[in-house]
Structure formats: C-alpha cells, structure tokens
Amino acid sequence: MSAAILDGRQVSDRILETVAADTSRFVERFGRVPVLATVLVGDDPASHTYVRMKANRCQKVGMSSRRVDLDDAVTTDKLVAQIEELSDDPTIDGILLQHPVPQHIDERAAFEAIAPSKDVDGVTRTSFATMAFAGGGFNSATPGGIMALLDAYDISLSGKQAVVIGRSSILGMPMGMLLLARDATVTYCHSKTADLAAEVARADLIVAAAGRPGLVRGEWIKPGAVVVDAGYADNRGDVEFDEAAARASFITPVPGGVGPMTIATLLAQTIEAARRHETSGGRS
C-alpha cells in the first residue's frame, strides 16, 4: 500500500479563495476591511516567519493585519494589558498571540485576555468550552484545519478509533473534542502513555501532535490507517513518513499538510468574526 497525500496546500488554497470572496463582499457591504492583530513576543526566528506568513496571507485575501512586537523581557502584566487594549479596540476583528511565548510569561493568562469574540485562533477557555459543548464558537485553528482537511478528502470518522498524541490546550485536547463530536472513539496519548506503539497500532486515525521528531514509528501504523502529522520540530514531523506512508491509506506531508490549513482556518474565522461584529452591533 502507498498512502495518498492529504495535500494541505491545495485544500487551503481553495479555502482562501472562499475567504477572499467573502472578504470582498464584506468590504462592499460594510465599507471597511477586516483586521487581524498579531502579537509576537521575543525574537524567535520561526515565530517571526509564521507571523510574516500570516500577514502575507491576510494581504492576499484582502484583509489587513496589525502587528504588535514586544521585547522578550516583557512581563505577563504588560502583555495582558496589550492584549486587553486590542480586545477593547473596535477596529480589530481578530487577535492572534503567536505561540510559544518566553518561559517567564504566563501564557494562559495572556490567552484569557483575548476577548472571546476576537479569539479567532481558538485559544481561550471560552472558545474551548463552546467548541466542546455547544458548537458555534471558534475552533482551535490547527485542529479546525485538520478537520477541514479530513472533510476535503471525504474521510469518515464515525465509529473510527482515533488516537491523538499530545494533550496541549491548543492542539491535542481540542483535537480530541472535535473528533469526539464526529462520533469517533478517542484515545489521548502523551509522555506518560505506557505502550504508545500498542495504542497507535489499533488506531484507524492517528493525529500526532507531540512535537517530537520521529516519535511515531512507521511499523506501528495499522494498514489502511489515516495519519495526520501535526508535529513540527527541527524541520521534521512526529511520524516516520516513508515507513508510515507504505502502510497508511492517507498521510499528511511535513511541511505542506497541517500548516497551511492552520492559517486558512485562522483567516476563515477572522472574516466570520468580522461579520459577527457587524451584525451584533459592536466590536469590543
């Protein structure tokens, strides 16, 4: 067996075409351009690259981006105050705090300073609760992008055994909730999992999101399983690609799989936030 590629670049391009059309209609109707604010703390080269990519995508779909750069010595209190200022700014539709932040920052406190109506990256507790229990909120961007990618390839999830490797609040945990909502049976795995190989071997769908290159061995993959590699460290994914591709039915490449879908989801949720702000009568 040779796995078919889940092409995130191709699918994200289609999503961004829709976002561009929606943005054009929005500007024509409301007479303003949607705005995404990005907050970057410190000088991490990869984070700077990601923020530039998001700004470029904003420009391509007709949105505006407002970048806020903060020194890596900034305190949690000052970062929270900056995000609260953006949350109160009626000209801003969405807010993204680039992850990760320096270790001395209380990242959760910073996330919670984002107004839920502007949480287009889906990182607040409110967004998580709404996503998990009610629907209608903003999904965490990477899990939401993964779901859109699976949908684009008509991959059925109902009744399937899904293993999510990783339990971060912005990736692993919400990923499992979204799969559960589609009637998959979800197992979370992590650094304390006793026998990761055995858990992976029985999975119909594996979402690897641990950030540990080569963690998932190709020989563990059940023939015909779907493999989504959301890990990215040292320019490699969490899954042994060649070995896994020989056994899987579908697999994401790294790069070119999950990453483009994250940005597309972020911008799709930004235009949705802008529409909600206009129809609800306020943007703060």
Automatic annotation (TrEMBL):
Biological pathway: One-carbon metabolism; tetrahydrofolate interconversion
Binding-site list for NADP(+): G166, R167, S168
Keywords for this protein: Amino-acid biosynthesis, Histidine biosynthesis, Hydrolase, Methionine biosynthesis, Multifunctional enzyme, NADP, One-carbon metabolism, Oxidoreductase, Purine biosynthesis
UniProt domain Tetrahydrofolate dehydrogenase/cyclohydrolase catalytic: residue ranges: 6-121
Amino-acid biosynthesis is among the record's keywords: yes
SUPFAM superfamilies referenced in this protein's UniProt entry, alphabetically: Aminoacid dehydrogenase-like, N-terminal domain (SSF53223), NAD(P)-binding Rossmann-fold domains (SSF51735)
Gene3D superfamilies assigned: Leucine Dehydrogenase, chain A, domain 1, NAD(P)-binding Rossmann-like Domain
EC number(s) stated in the UniProt entry for this protein: 1.5.1.5, 3.5.4.9
InterPro entries: Aminoacid_DH-like_N_sf, NAD(P)-bd_dom_sf, THF_DH/CycHdrlase, THF_DH/CycHdrlase_cat_dom, THF_DH/CycHdrlase_CS, THF_DH/CycHdrlase_NAD-bd_dom
Keyword Electron transport recorded: no
Pfam families xref list: THF_DHG_CYH, THF_DHG_CYH_C
Catalytic reaction(s) noted: (6R)-5,10-methenyltetrahydrofolate + H2O = (6R)-10-formyltetrahydrofolate + H(+); (6R)-5,10-methylene-5,6,7,8-tetrahydrofolate + NADP(+) = (6R)-5,10-methenyltetrahydrofolate + NADPH
Domain Tetrahydrofolate dehydrogenase/cyclohydrolase NAD(P)-binding: from-to ranges: 140-277
PROSITE patterns: THF_DHG_CYH_2
Organism superkingdom: Bacteria
Assembly and oligomerization: Homodimer.
Family, similarity comment: Belongs to the tetrahydrofolate dehydrogenase/cyclohydrolase family.
Primary role: Catalyzes the oxidation of 5,10-methylenetetrahydrofolate to 5,10-methenyltetrahydrofolate and then the hydrolysis of 5,10-methenyltetrahydrofolate to 10-formyltetrahydrofolate.
Protein name stated in the entry: Bifunctional protein FolD
Top-level taxonomy: Bacteria, Bacillati, Actinomycetota, Actinomycetes, Mycobacteriales
